[in-house]
TrEMBL record:
SMART domains documented for this protein: PLCXc (SM00148)
GO molecular function terms listed in the Swiss-Prot or TrEMBL record: phosphoric diester hydrolase activity
UniProt organism field: Paracoccidioides lutzii (strain ATCC MYA-826 / Pb01)
A GO biological-process term: lipid metabolic process
Domain Phosphatidylinositol-specific phospholipase C X intervals: 155-305
InterPro entries linked to this entry: PI-PLC_domain (IPR051057), PLC-like_Pdiesterase_TIM-brl (IPR017946), PLipase_C_PInositol-sp_X_dom (IPR000909)
Pfam family, one: PI-PLC-X
Name by which UniProt lists this protein: 1-phosphatidylinositol phosphodiesterase
Length: 473
């Protein structure tokens, strides 16, 4: 069932005026194998990319309608225009006027050649992404940002906790592995290049008793992330540092946790990190407070989910080392870490498929909290602590979209992501808003983004920074 009338939501800082609608017949039915059929059936939210036979301007439409409907920034308009004429599988080509520029968005299935929306003018000032929620006949329009360098547009005095940040869960777990272990479709470098700025990483010290060894194996729970040999934290950090070197406007927030079999300890992990990775003069930000963006451009911001070796508790004038995620509540729908620097939704025990909706409800509830955030710019207390909430904090809001149950195929990471990721795109496109806040999403930590080149979720999250940017002007 598809909604009868077209709704358009403008999530940009500029009024857009719908000027023309062209209608195209449904694409010819293609033959799929069983795997292909499953892929088609599970995807309700689709990118507004030109279909293969609808890309050319010469493609014949069966109806054209001239209109003039203005959608103001951060407003939604039910246009009164029928979303379809004869079939709910029809495709629309919409022409918008934006301050004298014409832009085209098509509501069609994705093609192999990625294209979000198409400016119909040379040297356009604006770039947009259109995401169409087909069952609701709802088009959300976002400002497009360069995924390699989207933080460049934000002011230095912005606290990183004020941002809408796409993240990934078990970020390097993209290799050949058991389905219950693998969490990502593409490499960490590809994630970074497409806008991801938060990595969740789990490591196992390989030689914990040897102070000269820096070997940290990348793991997921008790398992290595690859069936064909160990993958190492050193290679991951080298890749991250290379990306930041080429994109100095960006920062990467990294949550680190110790997992894996063996008798290693948190204290040993903290020693290895301090002595071999986050040394003085490195790209790591390890002060135990939420930084402003200008302080950490080109750097890795450490969130530690482990206890410290005794000597590290004396770092930073006795305040410790790294943003403190100790006491992270297990399997929680909502909790604040004892440090006060992190508010998290990390309910992961989806033991059966029917519990996926419960997880979605927890995700949406945390999004509602973040939408009301309105952090000031660049205010810092004399002792180095933030002048924020009642505890003097501007905490990071971290929202995990990941969940799994090792014992059931239907609740392995990829299966759950196939339901949760489109549901979250739907929520962000149609419902995410705040009464007084900046409509931030906080940090959304996802599984399986980039599968089949689908980066809708990441683009939605990055696009939600627009309201914050308007307040910075």
């Amino acid at each position: 069932m598809v909604a009868e009338y077209l709704t358009i939501r403008n999530l940009t800082s500029t009024p857009v005026v719908l000027k023309q609608i062209e209608r195209f017949s449904p694409q010819k039915v293609q033959k799929y194998d069983i795997k292909g059929v499953a892929k088609v059936l599970k995807k309700n939210v689709t990118r507004s990319e030109p279909a293969v036979d609808c890309t050319s301007q010469s493609t014949e439409y069966f109806d054209r309608q001239d209109v003039s409907i203005c959608i103001e920034p951060f407003e939604s308009v039910e246009t009164g225009i029928h979303a379809f004429d004869k079939s709910d599988k029809e495709r629309l080509r919409l022409i918008f006027d934006v301050e004298g520029e014409k832009h085209q968005i098509q509501t069609s299935e994705p093609s192999k050649d990625y294209e979000t929306s198409k400016p119909l003018a040379d040297n356009p000032r604006f770039q947009f992404t259109g995401i169409y929620v087909r069952p609701e006949s709802h088009l959300a329009i976002y400002s497009s940002a360069n995924p390699n360098a989207w933080m460049r547009e934000l002011k230095d005095e912005t606290y990183i906790s004020a941002l809408s940040i796409p993240g990934t869960h078990n970020s390097p777990a993209c290799h050949l592995a058991a389905p219950s272990v693998r969490c990502q479709a593409v490499s960490p470098r590809k994630q970074l290049e497409n806008g991801v700025r938060f990595f969740d990483v789990r490591v196992q010290p390989q030689f914990p008793d040897d102070p000269d060894k820096d070997n940290l194996i990348l793991v997921h729970g008790t398992f290595p992330i690859s069936l064909v040999g160990h993958k190492y934290f050193r290679d991951l950090t080298t890749e991250i540092e290379s990306f930041l070197d080429h994109n100095p406007s960006e920062t990467l927030i990294m949550s680190l946790k110790r997992e894996g079999p063996g008798s290693h300890t948190d204290a040993q992990l903290s020693r290895i990190l301090r002595d071999h990775y986050a040394r003085d003069g490195s790209l790591w930000y390890t002060e135990p407070r939420i930084p402003r963006l200008g302080e950490v451009r080109g750097k890795i911001v450490l969130i530690r989910r482990f206890e410290l070796e005794e000597r590290l508790t004396k770092e930073w004038d006795g305040r410790g080392w790294g943003i403190n995620g100790e006491g992270w509540a297990d399997n929680t729908p909502f909790a604040t870490c004892p440090s006060g620097d992190i508010c998290v939704q990390d309910f992961y025990a989806v033991l059966e498929k029917e519990k996926i909706q419960q997880k979605i409800d927890y995700i949406n509830a945390h999004l509602k909290r973040t939408a009301e955030l309105c952090y000031p710019f660049g205010v810092i207390g004399k002792d180095g602590a933030n002048d924020g909430d009642e505890n003097g904090k501007f905490p990071l809001y971290i929202n995990f979209l990941s969940a799994s149950n090792f014992w059931k195929i239907q609740t392995w990471p990829e299966k759950i992501a196939a339901s949760i990721n489109p549901a979250t795109v739907d929520y962000l496109c149609r419902r995410h808003r705040g009464e007084k806040g900046d409509w931030s999403t906080g940090i959304l930590v996802c599984d399986w983004v980039g599968l089949d080149r689908d980066w809708d979720l990441v683009r939605c999250v990055v696009g939600m920074n627009t309201r914050l940017m308007m307040r910075q002007r």
